Amino acid sequence: MNSNTKGRLYGIGVGPGDPELLTLKALRLLQAAPVVAYQSATDRDSIARAIVAQYLTGNQIEVLFHLPRALKPETAESIYDQEIAPIADHLAAGRDVVVLCEGDPFFYGSFMYVFTRLSEQYETEVVPGVSSLMACPVALGVPFTYYNDILTVLPAPLPPEELTTQLLTTDAAAIMKLGRHFTKVRDILHQLGLASRALYIERATMTQQRIVPLDEVDPTEVPYFAMIVIPSKNRL
Ligand SMILES: C[S@@+](CC[C@H](N)C(=O)[O-])C[C@H]1O[C@@H](n2cnc3c(N)ncnc32)[C@H](O)[C@@H]1O
Q1: What is the pTM of this model?
Q2: Which class for 120: exposed (0-12), middle (13-18), buried (19 or more C-beta within 10 A)?
Q3: Which fold has domain 132-230?
């Protein structure tokens, strides 16, 4: 590639875990790119890289960047800038960069931190991925929303009052980012009479997928990749 030409930035959704849930477009772009970047929380391997490991060509430059969570916004801003700088360096040198993102890039995706920093300077294409929002109900084997149902997506770290208000006014819900918030969420579901309809799944579509009855979940063992799905009770 001509070094006077800027590289293109690709944000690629790699799906929820099963490598066969990658789109054909994502696969084509992934294999054509000279540089593949992926993020990891500082203490973990990259899930997104693991999902596509079998498709990497073996002669691509790999860039790992860290986006630590639970930082104060002022600190996060400068750390994220530093972490994402190597991607900009490759683009400035004329190399296309594929940034992998678990699930879909624009649905709570880590790629958005790259997008907001680089998409104005570099030509950017985003490829949607199969999101956990779609994959979890299917893996659980439950139809999720019918006809004019309202679906609400709730991050579990929200305050209990907010979770309660939202759950009272929706037909179906997905509760994400459970981790240490699991007990709070389960208590609310019991209080609202929703526990019997709520389904728990972790690592959907990955080889370690587990489906556990809500009341049998050990709150100390809830992983980051876990979701509670409350399917609509309406039936057509
Ligand atoms: C930061 S969000 C990323 C969402 C992702 N971009 C997507 O489209 O699915 C992370 C949350 O997504 C949910 N999640 C992602 N993949 C999952 C999976 N394979 N099984 C269960 N939940 C998953 C979990 O609730 C997790 O806390």
Answers
A1: 0.94
A2: exposed
A3: 3.30.950
